[in-house]
Amino acid sequence: MRGQRTSSSAPPALTQPRCFLASAWGLRLGIYLIWRWRNHGHDRRYAKLAERAQQKHGLNFAMFSLLWVFGPQLVLQMIMSLPAQLGQIPQTETFGAIATIGLWLSAFGIIYEGIADAQLAHFKSLSDNKDKVMDRGLWRYSRHPNYFGELCCWWGIWLIALDAGMGLWSLPGPLLITFLLTRVSGAPTTEPHLQRTRPDYEAYKKRTSAYLPLPPKKA
Questions:
Q1: What would the mean pLDDT of 201-208 be, rounded to a whole number?
Q2: pTM for this predicted structure
Q3: How far apart, in whole angstroms, are the C-alpha atoms of residue 103 and residue 160?
Q4: Domain residue spans of the chain
Q5: CA-CA distance, 48 to 89, in Å (whole number)?
């Protein structure tokens, strides 16, 4: 019979992979954001939000950051990280096949997203590419390979939680991040800007898959 365990008595082999994946995801993202800030300054999306908050509500930068950025992000992050949190309370004594698939899927997603971000950063660093569309490397096969990698990471961690018996309780996590990236703060905020500033983006959009890496459509 498969017995139940508490997080304090769970074998390290069951809990360490989840901790490692979540830490690797956070470390990679943190390094990338620091590099981007040092080289390109503030995120234009947050800069516009800050300006709007100051004009309409009289909020200074500190209050804007608390009420519009870090406060809401704290709530969202708690929900999105449910698979990593609840996965620390395994209801099984073994690291099964589903968890193994999730481990590899999540690791793949972290690496894939890292490669996509690095390719885009290199492309933007070349002055000749100003106003051009990034359609090389992983970006040849999908318009948002970085988001695809992000989704693979969190759905992979969810598979580990599923194998641990916490799949239903942690499902809101990957569902929320999928919704945000595909319907709210991901493509919906970046693509309109690219269509206005990149003359060739519309043609790129027609021939290239949004998220799932697929061969480009023929013109």
A1: 96
A2: 0.83
A3: 7
A4: 12-207
A5: 41
